[in-house]
Amino acid sequence: MTSATVAPTASGVWSVVVGQPGAVEVLSAAAEAAAAVVAGGEASPGAMTHAWLFTGPPGSGRSVAAKAFAAALQCTVTDDRPGCGECAGCRTALAGTHADVRVVVPEGLSISVAEMRALVQTAARRPTSGRWQVVIIEDADRLTEGAANALLKAVEEPPPRTVFLLCAPSDHPDDVSVTIRSRCRVIALRTPPASAIADVLVRRDGVAQAKAAWAASVCGGHVGRARRLATDPAAEQRREAVLRIPLGLRRAADVFTCADELVKTAEAEASEVNDTRNEAERQALETAMGAGGTGKGTASATRGAKGAMKDLERRQKSRSTRTQRDSLDLALVDLAGFYRDVLITATGAREVSLNHPDRAADVATAAASWSAESALRRLEAVLACREALEINVKPRIAIEAMITALHRG
Amino acid sequence: MNAPAVTPDPLHLILGDEELLVERAVRTAFEAARLADSQADLTRVRVTDLTPPELAELVSPSLFAEGRVIVLEAAQEAGKEIADAVISYCAHPADGITLVVVHTGGGRSKVAKELPAALRKAGARVTECPKLTKPADRDAFVRNEVRAAGGKIDPEGVAALVEAVGSDLRELAAAASQLVADSAGKVNADAVRRYHRGRAEVTGFAVAEKAVIGDRAGAMEALRWAMQTGVAHVLVADALADAVRTVARVSAVGRADPFQLAGQLGMPPWKVKKAQGQARGWTEQGLAECMQVVAGLNADVKGAAADPDYALERAVLRIVAAHQQRGR
Fold this sequence. Notes:
The complex is a heterodimer of chains A (409) and B (328). Chain A is an alpha/beta fold. Chain A has three domains: 12-188, 3-Layer(aba) Sandwich (Rossmann fold), CATH 3.40.50.300; 195-231; 253-289 and 308-408, Zinc Finger, Delta Prime, domain 3, CATH 1.20.272. Chain A contains 16 helices and five strands. In chain A, strands 2-3-4-1-5 form a five-stranded parallel beta sheet, with helices on one face. By secondary structure, chain B is of the alpha/beta class. Chain B folds into three domains: 11-128, 3-Layer(aba) Sandwich (Rossmann fold); 135-197, Orthogonal Bundle (Helicase, Ruva Protein, domain 3), CATH 1.10.8; 201-327, Zinc Finger, Delta Prime, domain 3. In chain B, the strands form two sheets. A five-stranded parallel beta sheet of chain B has the order 2-3-4-1-5, sandwiched between helices. The longest helix of chain B is centred in the last third of the chain and has 21 residues, at 233-253. In chain B, 40% of the residues are buried. The A-B interface holds A 251-253, 255-256, 388, 391-394, 397-398, 400-402, 404-405, 407-408 and B 238, 241, 245, 248-249, 251-253, 284-285, 288, 291-292, 294-296, 298-299, 302-304. Chain A: Its EC number is 2.7.7.7. Chain A: Residues 48-192 form the AAA+ ATPase domain. Chain A: Residues 287-323 are annotated as: Disordered. Chain A: This is DNA polymerase III subunit delta'.
């Protein structure tokens, strides 16, 4: 953490927001104004508003910042600096159990309009604790068009004590519709510097200094990814396997082995994450619908369960697809980083830091043997594959096409 | 088909789920019973609707010894009680009664699965009616149909008829007997074409097979037929992708014994063998291009292209073009 420069604000709940001094300043000023409103006093005009949009690259901590802000709004120890991190309000808000903080985390591929309509209903209530009713929508870029429109009315004219916190990669119309964007104040988060990430790894997760520095240097500014790499050996191995691909493509047959490995790893990861959970959910639903009961009336009680089971299965499938895609996307981002490094090394720009500093030798080998054009073509093949996966192309077909392109250069 | 017999077999077992053939076997059994007793009547019952006492009533001899044919349908769904009743009756079949058990060969419960074996043991006459899945079987079926109707058909005629009518046996049988009547016994490709036009079934695989061997006209024709008969765009696109990647995978490992490669590539040997044949004439460059084409096509048919029909045609043409660049 760059604690030396932002010492006054980076305490309490703000300590979880890594490397974002500017954003923390704005948010804590807003939280102070909000506390003044709650106290019935006069708030400084323009400091607090009813809708915020947190943008920033993946891993910059959009949702973390939103949660910290929510905690500061719910902080019950109101001296002049809300967000102590100690009181019940702060703790429950950060843990996601506060009664007045709703968090929407899409696990499937999109957020449906039905979900948003239900949310708008709850958002219209008065806060039970008498402070603020906070609604956090993580991944607002996954709102469908209908869902965004359903949300629009509420964001436009919310009840006096309701605050909407939306998180999205950017405020580009592709991510957030312009109508929603124009009703929010944007908090733009930057890519946190590696030193800040390493610091938080050491401080919060107790990772050894050297490991933390390595993880922070290869994570591409993604705090969550850095933690995963530092604490999960399997994640480290997967990254190794992915980064072996560019130089490992010698024969035509390697294309299919590599593609197969990538797709299988993603599938395995998805089933590892979801299988036990799916089973538990299914059993819970069956019990809820009266399965395993005996006696009169149980048959008719379970009759209606079919539809609910189908519904659950559909949601689980969507979640599994998402996990698979996310896992592939991570691999693709790592690959893209490698080719970017090759391009940078080829141009001889020494002062730019590499995405994968630990792979500098491989990068140099590649830069020496490939032309800049072919490195660029490969980079574009990786990016095209990411886009293809997003529009539902079968992962195996997309990945094989990409690796064929990587092989040919 | 007719097997004249003075005393019909008291027990029949019809195994399989090809509806038309089962129907015919039942009729044959009935006709055999009619030969012995022209007053014989036919009773059809689903096994699941039957209780053991009802079965006993059905199979007990009548006062005036009229012939009777009892058909037990869907025996694969039989419960334990009724299965036991059937088996115990089989030990002592009554005079003048023909019991026909229709069974798909499958079944959920243990007793239902074991019923065919028990009937065989009891000396039932078994007629097998499995689904015809192999093209050769279907051709043979058509030839038999024509012969049974008193006509003759040449191989081209068989191919043309199967292509035009499809794989449904009922339709094939009807078309065969009609053709024999219309063309005075001699059926050939011309006669078939006079009465049947178009194609009943074209799969995405047919399109893909033609495309990867560089048959432009054939592939385009198959594609148009497939679109015309309503094959989903996604299915054709997937078949194309699968064909291209199979050829690419097989040609990447070089020539070798298909049976060895099968294990290594995780494909059945016949697929490897076929792909080895198709791989002839492909260059590595051409295959690499095709991999991009089919990946793009997969996005196109899922909404990226304004017109999926056009996207498919273009992809097929590009695959054929990539195949033909071997001279360069």
